[in-house]
Automatic annotation (TrEMBL):
Domain Response regulatory: 2-118
Listed GO biological process terms: phosphorelay signal transduction system; regulation of DNA-templated transcription
Residue list for modification 4-aspartylphosphate: D53
Keywords: DNA-binding, Phosphoprotein
Domain HTH luxR-type as annotated: residue spans: 142-207
Name listed for the protein in its UniProt record: Response regulator of two-component system protein
Domain of life: Bacteria
Segments crossing the lipid bilayer: none
GO molecular function: DNA binding
């Protein structure tokens, strides 16, 4: 797995490189300390994954990621940061980042890289816990029929995005719990998604 690391703290970058290259099959192709250099390195190497901080001088990681993804639609970008600001999470989701984890959880970096490499989205536990509140602040129904979703399915997707369990959704929508499970299975199949987390992210990116 070929990786580029971007962080304006050189100690963090070098430590992360050491951790990653301890594992067989992981190679760090380069290190950058700014958003501008991240774009240049990505164009030069087109790595499997770009691991990048968010807050950096001149050009943030979010700005760099947006420019990279506009050129390389399949770019896999994993944000590794100390910040959980709602606006950062929202932007990361909207531009199509594959992951968002916190620096204090260094032990999760290798599992996160493996997951992103295999095509999964990875968000730290703290980020997942924030998603319902972040999404509810920006909820606004639109275009759900464009995805083959009917109104009742959209109501269930919205409830999932708020972090409600099947039991809670059933109570809120006056449905049986088994019916809710069936609806969710159909929705996941329609949208070619794997689980509730991906469904919540899809809702935020496309239906909110």
């Amino acid at each position: 797995m070929k990786i580029i690391i971007v962080d304006d703290d050189q100690l963090v970058s070098s430590s992360l490189k050491t951790i990653i290259e301890t594992y067989d099959g992981f190679y760090v192709l380069g290190i950058a300390n700014s958003g501008e250099d991240a774009i240049k390195l990505y164009k030069r190497h087109q790595p499997d994954i770009l691991v990048m901080d968010i807050r950096m001088d001149k050009m943030s990681g979010l700005e760099a990621a947006e420019k990279i993804i506009k050129t390389f639609a399949n770019a896999k970008i994993l944000f590794l940061t100390t910040f959980m600001d709602d606006e950062y999470i929202i932007k990361a989701l909207k531009i199509g980042a594959k992951g968002y984890i916190l620096k204090q959880h260094y032990n999760s970096i290798i599992p996160a890289l493996n997951a992103v490499y295999s095509g999964q989205n990875v968000f730290g536990e703290e980020i997942i816990n924030k998603l319902p509140s972040v999404m509810s602040k920006h909820s606004n129904k639109k275009n759900y029929r464009d995805y083959g979703i009917v109104e009742k399915e959209f109501e269930i997707i919205t409830s999932v995005s708020k972090g409600l369990s099947n039991k809670e959704i059933a109570k809120e929508l006056y449905l049986g719990e088994g019916t809710v499970r069936n609806y969710i299975s159909v929705i996941l199949e329609k949208l070619d998604l794997r689980d509730r987390t991906q469904l919540a992210i899809f809702y935020f990116n496309h239906l909110s």
